Predict the structure.
Amino acid sequence: MAVDTLEISDALGVVADALARSDETLALASRHLDRSLVDVLAILGFDKRYVSARGSYLYDENGRAYLDLHTGEGFASLGHNHPDVREVLEATLASELPGGVQIHYSPLAGLLAEELTQRLPAGLDAVFFASTGAEAVDSAMKFARAATGRPRLLSCDSGFHGVTLGPLSIVGDEFFKEGFGPLLPGCARVPFGDLDALERELREKDVAAFIVEPVQGRMVTIPPADYLQHAQAACRRYGTLFVADEIQTGLGRTGKWFALDHWGLEPDVVLVGKALSGGYMPVAAMVTTRVIYDKAVGTLERCYVHQSTYGRNRLSMAAGLATLRVIERDGLVEHAARVGAFLRAGLEELRERHELIKEVRGLGLMIGIELGPPRGRAAKLNWHLIHSASEGLFPQLVVIPLHRDHAMITMAAGKNDVIKLLPPLTLSEAQAASFLDALDAVLSDCESGSGKNWAVVRDIAVATMRRRVPLRSR
Ligand SMILES: Cc1ncc(COP(=O)(O)O)c(C=O)c1O
């Protein structure tokens, strides 16, 4: 149910202004924020005015409920505005605990570190809290260099680790990097799953860290069997730190507390972010061993060299603790495994009936649906036209009608043909079933030759080809 906002106000009028001016949301964003993104939302028909969010649903101004199967790339993994996390945040504010005092530690930070590390392999008990995933990745890059005395950093093709300059240097797609160079020296990549290529790089014994997502988030790529165990062993052989970037896969997303649990991994560093605050506060963490932590910054003179003003702020820490406790209390890891299996089985069944689905991949509630070319002549021509206009546009054939006709939010995964699902871990089987029904209907429509959905995406393709320049002249 949408929230009744009439009763909500504050003396400074902040919330009242946000409510009163909500019809200006996109205009304000276009004027002051990310104008080209606003344009893209309008072109794709995603420029809705969502006025509230609760659990698995967003609500627009007309009270239409949208099932959110993407949750902001997995950040609202408890569902939107979880009431128990909110209660903890309100209690933390009411307690007037000190925050931001650099000569002091909030007990909340130590408690969150304790509860987080209890869910990770033994020995990973030293934590650096940051505000964003990119900052946690950056911390691992710095700590690995400092702890090993080695300059190079290794990552995987198609990997994603964030867009600030450090993480961007190890991201696996050039598209993100264009125009932002020069990036960090000493960064190299190997194909995900290629142990020989990894070993060739490690043999030089100058690699500080191999940083890898256990399941690649961009296209939901599952590693070949045993790849990660062998990669970890190779890192150990050559003195390279094995860093698991679990910023997307962590905290129940793949049906285990951490994806590393699927393979019994014991990384030297684990990175956590996104879902850690239940979608309320910016928070991320680099978790490592005490030995590595101390080697990097463990002397009295160096204790200040790696800090972050908001890194362990009380609200983020409190939200983190609340989130871990909700996941545990409500059995959400097991729930994600169960509903994820149900959803993937349903998608497999759709794949057998629909030529447009090429492959379904995933673990738990991290799922990729890869589309493939249709067989019909006209549809094939459209497929080529759309692909030559823009890599990554084709999934909109399905994503747009799912949103427009069925009020379901999914995302095209980038410059590829994958639709990505990162639903809340609280997704019910009934909600998963309603998504399967909607997808079935959309695919049937696309394959029936009705042309309605094709026309929308073809028009976008043609417009894109006409405007291979910034969406508006600046
Ligand atoms: C695996 C992974 N690492 C790092 C990041 C960067 O996180 P943030 O956007 O919080 O900087 C992301 C974000 O999508 C991610 O998926």
User: Anything to note?
Assistant: DSSP finds 17 helices and 15 strands in the chain. Residues 7 and 16 are 10 Å apart (CA to CA).
